[in-house]
Amino acid sequence: MIEMQEVYKKYPNGVTAINGIDVKINQGEFVYVVGPSGAGKSTFIKMMYREEVPTTGTITMNGVNLAKLKMKKVPLFRRNLGVVFQDFKLLPTLTVYENVAFALEVIEAQPKYIRKRVMEVLDLVNLKHKIKMLPTELSGGEQQRVSIARSIVNSPKVVIADEPTGNLDPETSWEIMNIFEEINTRGTTIVMATHNREIVNTLKHRVIAIEGGRIARDEQRGDYGYEN
Amino acid sequence: MNKEVITVMKIRTIGRHTRESLKSIRRNGWMTFASVSAVTVTLILVGVFFVIMMNLNRVAQTIEDDVQIRVHIDVAASKQDQQSLRSQIERFPEVKSVTFSPKKKELDNLVNSLGEDGKAFKLFEQDNPLNDVFVVKTKKPTDTMVVAKKVEKLNYVSKVRYGQGKVEKLFKFIKASRDVGVVLIIGLFFTAIFLISNTIKITIIARRREIKIMRLVGATNNFIRWPFFLEGLWLGILGAILPIILISIAYYRAYDYIGPKLDGTFIKVLPFDPFVYQVSGILILMGALIGVWGSVMSVRKFLKV
């Protein structure tokens, strides 16, 4: 469960990105975060994976208050969380398999467990046949699937995706959405920032719209609501 | 999780960090070369300086041990007077020992030291013009002058002799060269640290992406830092190899060349074994220190994890 209470975020340069947000997201929910560029969407998402810390207010995630989380504890917190980006953030020198295994290696998991678990998630994203390829040899959609596989390899309770389809063509975007749906049906909370009108309007889920650093709209099975 | 598993995991992690650090040493190419060279130059100078300093110290020590005050006793002094003079000298806190050397022995020494020509002085055996002498040694060689001044004022002392001026000059010279060397070495030391920290900085920048991903998937800060510490350590140790080889060969040659020439003099240089092994150990330690220090600086500054 994610809960924000009276969250404000002011950057050192004086820009107020978040101007009082209260929101609650339950375990297993699928939430779209929409809104115009520069409205605070990005900061909202970044605070959830503790890349940014609120100036005031509290963010509770699985019982941990991120606003007060000590730097030392951040890595442990992130192990229960998956993050997916628009630009995939894969390591170009590592193969598909190695990129996914990397997430388990850095938390010092057992080699035997790593092998089993990596194959499992690569199977889930349908890339079992390409494990030895480098990211540069893959299409954009395939790269994003690798990055999703990496984000869920730790079996996190929450996956946070920042414009995961932003760089992909419509058809590929749907492939990615199907994977997110699949992950969500297995009980993982998904919070996804997006500009993709078609997806939000077709694959109905809760929609949180952020404008001017505030929540302008919060609807179950909502619409995208902007003209793009 | 039982203890065994934890140990196994640790060894595996160490292996991973080692591989990562070696990989970036290869990848950094010229920067690796530059920083290893800097360490090499520093350590060659440190090594040469150290070898010279240690040997100078050794020579100084030999001379210091040899520094003594010769108190010539007035011929008018009776046995009792001599005895009281001796106990007066012995009472000075700086004094280590007082040895009596009768005038006969003084003459023998003189005769022997002059060799063939000395035979002429044998004539004086009948009427020895020399004084009886107290040979005084101080606890610290640097106290020589102070004690000499004090002894001069006592009764029945006709003359006080010690290496006036020469001793002080030698000590001053050794001290000055020590100071210059230390300043030079400290300067070089920091240059090498700076170069290493720059190399590590480049590694960190080259791996920014990787570090960011590591952070996102929950790697601890220590886990992220370790490969950089190791890289610095390797650079430092690599930099120590050439200096050790050069200094060993040079010292071996020099010892072979100089050693026999010093035979028969009171000056002795330090023997190859174990001195060169000690120097090698010190150079490796210094290399490692420079390397780790350099990487710690970079990691602190550029790796805000």
TrEMBL record, chain A:
InterPro entries registered for this protein in UniProt: AAA+_ATPase, ABC_transporter-like_ATP-bd, ABC_transporter-like_CS, ABC_transpr_LolD-like, Cell_div_FtsE, P-loop_NTPase
Domain ABC transporter: 2-228
Intracellular or extracellular location(s): Cell membrane
Molecular function terms from GO: ATP binding
Classification via Pfam families: ABC_tran
SMART domains on file: AAA
GO terms of biological process kind: cell division
Major localization class: membrane
Alphabetical keyword list: ATP-binding, Cell cycle, Cell division, Cell membrane, Membrane, Nucleotide-binding
Topology term for the membrane: Peripheral membrane protein
Domain of life: Bacteria
Family to which this protein belongs: Belongs to the ABC transporter superfamily.
Assembly and oligomerization: Homodimer. Forms a membrane-associated complex with FtsX.
Matching PANTHER family: CELL DIVISION ATP-BINDING PROTEIN FTSE, IMPORT ATP-BINDING PROTEIN
Function: Part of the ABC transporter FtsEX involved in cellular division.
Protein name, as recorded: Cell division ATP-binding protein FtsE
UniProtKB/TrEMBL annotation, chain B:
Residue ranges of domain FtsX extracellular in the record: 67-160
The keyword Transmembrane helix is annotated on this UniProt entry: yes
InterPro entries: ABC3_permease_C (IPR003838), FtsX (IPR004513), FtsX_ECD (IPR040690), FtsX_firmicutes-type (IPR058204)
GO BP, one annotated term: cell division
Residues in ABC3 transporter permease C-terminal domain copies: 183-303
Membrane protein topology class: Multi-pass membrane protein
Compartments (UniProt record): Cell membrane
Protein keywords: Cell cycle, Cell division, Cell membrane, Membrane, Transmembrane, Transmembrane helix
Top-level lineage group: Bacteria
Gene3D superfamilies xref list: 3.30.70.3040
Family: Belongs to the ABC-4 integral membrane protein family. FtsX subfamily.
Protein name (database record): Cell division protein FtsX
Species of the source: Neobacillus rhizosphaerae
Native organism taxonomy: Bacteria, Bacillati, Bacillota, Bacilli, Bacillales
